[in-house]
Design goal:
The protein has one domain: Nuclear Transport Factor 2, Chain: A (Roll). It has 4 helices and 7 strands. It is globular, with a radius of gyration of 15 Å.
Amino acid sequence: MQDLCDLMRGLYAAFSRGEIPVVLAAFSPDLVWHEAENFIYSEGSPYKGPEAVLTGVFARLATEWDGFTVVPEEFIGSSDTVVVPGRYRGTYKATGVRVDAQFVHVWRFRDGQVTTFRQCTDTAQFRDATAKAARA
């Protein structure tokens, strides 16, 4: 259980440094990635496989946001699951609207690789930030 928490600490750190290949390498080829219902990137949810997450989520975060960060606050582990509460922060480029939203990530593992990801977050903040761009 501690090993999985340590693995997740490393993955969040790699993500924050922009080391996306390191993050993707930890994903099982049969990964199932669930964005929160009504989240701005949920239209492809569940994303299946690392490549789908890369193009459907990570690439969009990198191109549509300024200073987007994923800040974990705690790592809670069990035999095959790690739960990570934290905060998303960033500014949506098209509107200049900043978000500072809570999240909870639930990660499930098999044989040391991530098999399932589930996101819970304040979708209203993201909707409001991006909706202003749609109206402009």
